[in-house]
Amino acid sequence: TSDSLLTKAGGELDDRFKLALPARILFNKVFPDHWSFLLGEIALFSFILLLLSGTFLALFFEPSMVEVTYNGVYVPLQGVEMSQAYHSALDLSFEVRGGLFMRQLHHWSTLLFMASILVHMLRIFFTGAFRAPRETNWMIGIVLFWLGFFEGFFGYSLPDDGLSGTGLRIMEGMTESIPFIGPWASAALFGGQFPGTSVISMLYIIHVFVFPLLILALITVHIGLVFAQKHTQWPGPGRTEHNVVGFRMFPNYVMKQVGFMLFIWGVLGAMAGLFQINPIWLFGPYEVSVVSSASQPDFYVMYLDGLIRLFPAWELRIPPYFTLPPVFWPGIVGMGLSVMLPLLYPALERRFTKDRGHHNLLQRPRDNAGRTSLGVMVVVFWIIGVISGGNDVFAEQFDISLNAMTWAGRIGLVVMPIIAYYVTYRICLGLQQHDREVLAHGLETGILMRDPNGRFYEVHQPLAEPDEHGHTELEYNGWVVPKKMNRIGALPPADKGFFKSIEEPSEDGRAERRDEIESGKH
Ligand code: HEM
Ligand code: HEM
Fold first, then answer.
1. How crowded is residue 389: how many other Cβ atoms within 10 Å of its Cβ?
2. Which long-range contacts (CB under 8 A, 24 or more apart) does 487-494 make?
3. Mind listing the pLDDT tens digit for each residue in 254-263?
4. Which residues is 518 bridged to in the sheet?
5. What rounded mean pLDDT belongs to the chain?
């Protein structure tokens, strides 16, 4: 029978490779389940697609700045002088079978990759998942973010179209602004004067080899650590700092993950086929003297561009030693802070709160009003930076003066984060209060009653047996408090179908909760 055949094959394999025990441990690993835990997976799945689509592009792309004359099928550019790199990217778009689809797939995957990393990071931040023992994984994550940032930037610099060159020009300006070493660093990068003849081939090796390897290695360590340290979970019935409640790796989690991956790839494939992204043939080849309006970087680079646009033209001269151009502050200092502050945040928070304990249960954002408000403050700062990175487009589309946009950005950047902090703090306190109110008095039912004395009152549905004053002695313990009627004690739906829950049915035959408890220490 097939059974004995399989068993035999399994036995033979185990004899040789000793796989049974590790496989059993792996299959039986328990993961907690929450939609927000899928964000890291979206990053992972789009990264895999980036490796695949990038490999296809690398087969046809020529990373060379040698000047050639365009002789391809796109009529408007015929006879135009351009670099070989731009020529081959045009060929990829118009003449290689499936090439345009692959370019667009690569670009849309990049955008989803960066967006999911950002939201994943916010999830980790706002729920306190970065606290001990997971600070290292937070720091690896921040490094991953910046590797992704530059990998994307280098990627869209490769085709050597009008937009790529404009981005590289800004990078050149930033590099040159570094005191003392700037000009040498820039000359090393561009092989002499900008734009030089070598930067594309250098970025190419970094883009297709160095950074993908680094990212792959770090993702491996990152996910390895999630395995080793176990995933955090939301507090709730039966969940403690020392157990993990959720689904087993096999079959539940594996099935879900594979399905989810195919879904993400399907969505990206549809986007690549249907929606245009980075139509380089419209931008023309890069010329140093041409910067057109509406030159926007990808969204993850935009806040930096925005900061550069907003910063006042303050030039600091200390003759005869050096001149600090304005771009130094937003470009080098701004970026330095954007790397260092997030990297050190877990350590800083630990120092200020003096909380040295290990935490495997997540916090609801409202329960840590200070951190949540700080996070919203940074998000607001970032959004204003992003909007200002496209302030010429806003000015043009809405017929506002560019000057007004710039000043609105400058004032907004200083004022709005403070307002955001205050408002968020109040909202958190309000939510906290409401939770305690519901715990003490029950849920509002919307039913108004009138007693014989003529007093109106609203009927409350208590969450537990009330005392004679109608109060319940429930303590808030970080769990979600039910806010709708008849949700109290609602169980998750019972398991149906082939992949039955692992637990035995209880004595009275009712389906048990399918939650699973992996005992063991964190
Ligand atoms: C181009 C991002 C990995 C090969 C690009 C572009 C971006 C990008 C945004 C510009 C696409 C366009 O023309 O619109 C990324 C990111 C990666 C990644 C974020 C990983 C995290 C890779 C890998 C390879 C690769 C692993 C090859 C093995 C290429 C090539 C181009 C390119 C050859 C130039 C082709 C072209 O732009 O038409 N990349 N990429 N990429 N990428 Fe990647
Ligand atoms: C957890 C992947 C970037 C911090 C995870 C998980 C995956 C993942 C699959 C487990 C599932 C989940 O909680 O979502 C990735 C990939 C990244 C990336 C592929 C980018 C290439 C980041 C960044 C940060 C970060 C930018 C923060 C700065 C963490 C932490 C955990 C985690 C602290 C543990 C969370 C917990 O146990 O609750 N990551 N991540 N990751 N990630 Fe990332």
1. 23
2. 488/443, 488/461, 488/463
3. 999 999 999 9
4. 244
5. 90
Element (H, E) at 227: helix 211-229
- Nearest residue CA, atom 23 of ligand 1? 54
pLDDT score of 501 more than 60: no
What is the number of the ligand closest to the CA of 94? 1
CB 102 within 8 A of CB 92: yes
d(CA 98, CA 107): 14
Between the CA of 192 and the centroid of ligand 1 the distance, in Å, is: 25
Token code pair at residue 321: 């030693």
Quick check: 107 and 164 in contact, CB under 8 A? no
Whole-number Å distance between alpha carbons of 91 and 88:
5
Cis peptide before 133 (omega within 30 of 0): yes
* Position in ligand 2 atom list of the atom nearest CA 129: 38
Spatial separation of the C-alpha atoms in residues 103 and 278, rounded to whole Å:
9
Lowest mean pLDDT among 41-45, 57-61, 78-82, 518-522: 518-522
Percent of the chain residues topping a pLDDT of 90: 73
- Tens of pLDDT, residue by residue over 462-486, are 888 888 877 777 889 899 888 877 6
What pLDDT sits at residue 231? Answer: 94
Lowest-pLDDT range of 198-212, 232-246, 418-432: 232-246
pLDDT tens readout for residues 130-158: 999 999 999 999 999 999 999 999 999 99
- Quick one: tokens of 319? 């003759």
Pocket of ligand 2 (CB under 6 A): 37, 39-41, 43-44, 47, 117, 120-121, 124, 129-130, 134, 137-138, 141-142, 144-145, 148, 219, 222-223, 226, 231-232
DSSP secondary structure of 237-288:
TT--TT-EEEEEIIIIIHHHHHHHHHHHHHHHHHHHHHS----HHHH-B--T
Distance from C-alpha of 380 to C-alpha of 417, rounded to nearest angstrom: 6
Model pTM? 0.91
Q: Which residues line ligand 1 (CB under 6 A)?
A: 47, 50-51, 54-55, 57-58, 61, 89, 92, 103, 106-107, 110, 113, 148, 151-152, 155-156, 158-159, 207-208, 212, 215, 278
SS3 292: coil
Which pLDDT score, from 0 to 100, does residue 497 have? 45
Say how far apart CA 480 and CA 431 lie, in whole Å.
11
Smallest-distance ligand from the CA of 244: 2
Residue 93 CA: which ligand is closest? Answer: 1
Ligand 2 centroid – CA 320 distance (Å):
48
Residue 487: per-residue pLDDT: 54
Mean pLDDT of all residues in 292-299: 84
* Ligand 1, atom 39: closest residue by C-alpha: 155
**ipTM of the predicted assembly exceeds 0.90:** yes
